[in-house]
Design a protein that fits this description.
Elements (H helix, E strand, L loop, with lengths): L2 H15 L1 H13 L8 H18 L7 H13 L6 H11 L3 H12 L5
Helix pairs in contact: 5-6
């Protein structure tokens, strides 16, 4: 996998994970005049990324097992799902479309009652 593909996939996964948060932010920016400047923030961030891209492209990629350890610790600290039902509930919350949410709900109903 090329570096560009890995970066794009990482960005896509991060956006998918934060869809509920991003929706709330967008709604607040749209409805609260004190927060309407929020629309400028992504533009400024993208400009900074574009401006610094040549410096970041020269950085050496060095995979490390510490990255996995850090992710596992963060997952555990966030309250890792303890049951299959909790896992499906979290997946439903992140589902990108109503059809996917409906499928997850159907799978959830097949689990035994507590």
């Amino acid at each position: 996998m090329s570096r560009l593909h890995a970066t794009a996939l990482t960005a896509l996964v991060l956006v998918a994970c934060y869809i509920p948060t991003l929706q709330g932010m967008f709604k607040q920016w749209w409805t609260d005049e004190d927060m309407s400047h929020g629309f400028a923030v992504p533009v400024v961030i993208l400009w900074i990324i574009w401006r610094e891209r040549s410096r970041w492209q020269t950085l050496e990629t060095r995979p490390s097992a510490w990255g996995f350890a850090l992710l596992a610790a963060a997952w555990a600290a966030d309250g890792a799902p303890r049951t299959a039902a909790e896992t499906l509930d979290r997946a439903a919350a992140l589902a990108p479309t109503p059809a996917v949410r409906k499928r997850i709900a159907a799978m959830r109903q097949t689990l035994p009652a507590r």
